[in-house]
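Reviewer 2 asked us to include a model.

Predict the structure of this chain.
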Amino acid sequence: MMLVDSHCHLNYEGLVEDQAAVLARARAAGVGTMLNISTREREWADIVGTAERESDVWATVGIHPHEADQHPHVDTAKLVAAAAHPRVIGIGETGLDYYYDHSDRARQQASFRAHIAAARETGLPLIVHTRDAEEDTAAILRDEMGKGAFSGVIHCFTASGAFADIALELGFYISISGIVTFKNAKALQETAARIPSKRLLIETDAPFLAPVPHRGRPCEPAYVADTARFLADLRGETLDELGAATTRNFFALFSKSAAGHARQRHLLRRAAHRRRLGRLRSRRSAQCPHAGLHPRGKRDDAYPRRYLAGHARPAARRRRHPYRRGALDA
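Predicted model (C-alpha cells):
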C-alpha cells in the first residue's frame, strides 16, 4: 500500500531543519508521494528545488490569502510562467481567509481569481484554502467556472456539509487533514464519512495540525498514515482500500505528476531487476570461480539474461581453450 500526503510544507520551520530525516520517516510509514505547497513568492525556488532533489516530492506555486497584500505583482502571467517547471503540478495554495483577515478581503479575492485564471490556462489543479469565507469562496468558484472549466481541491477541509456539496457539484476534490481525528470535530467527521470515494484526498498540512496521537508535536508527512487509519475506520473501509483510492485520486487530479510517478516506478523495477541479477551472479560465482568472466574481459552483464541462467553462450563468442581437445591440432 502507498499513501500520498497531498498537502505539506516541507520548507517550513519545524521540518526544513531536518528535512532528510522527515522524508525518511515518511517513506518508512508508506508515504510514496508528497506535494510541497508554496504560500509566498520567495519560497518558490526552494520548494521547487526540493522537488528537483527528491523524486517523490512535487511542488506548487501560489500565494496564500494571508500574503495577498504583499504580492499585488503576482498575477496570472507570473503564475503561468512559474508553473511551466516540470516539477510544478498545481496552483496554490490560494483562496479566502476571513478568520484572520491578514490581507484586505478585496485583495484576497483578486488574487484568488488570478490563481483560478492560471489554473485554467495551465490545466493544473487549484489548491483552495477557505476559512470563515464559504459564501464568497463558493460564489467566486461558481462565477469563474462559468468562464471556463478548471479542476481543484478544497484543502484541509473544515467547512460545512453544504459547502462540501457545492465543491463536489463543481467537480472539486476534498482533502481531509488530521483535524478529523480531533474529539471536537464531529461535524467534520460526519462530512468526511460521506464524501464519495472518488473525490477524497488526505493530507497533513505539516508542520501544522498533527493528528491524534501526535497532538502537541510538529506535524510531518509520516503522520498521514494516522489520519488514513482513522478515516478508513470512520468510513467503514480498510486502510488498503482508502490508501488505494486516495492515491489513485491524487494522480487523477494532479495528472502532470502521473508520468513522473510512472517513471519512478520504472526505475524502481529496473533497480530491483539489477539486484536480482546481482544475486544470480553471486550464486554462479560461488559455484564456479570463472563464471563471471567474459573472454574479452567484460562482465556477464554484457550477455542477454538467458545466458546468465546457465545456458551456453553463442558460438561466435566462445573461445577455444588452448588445452581443450583439438585446440593443439589447429
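The chain is about 40% helix and 15% strand. The CA atoms of residues 176 and 192 lie 7 Å apart. We have added this to the supplementary material.
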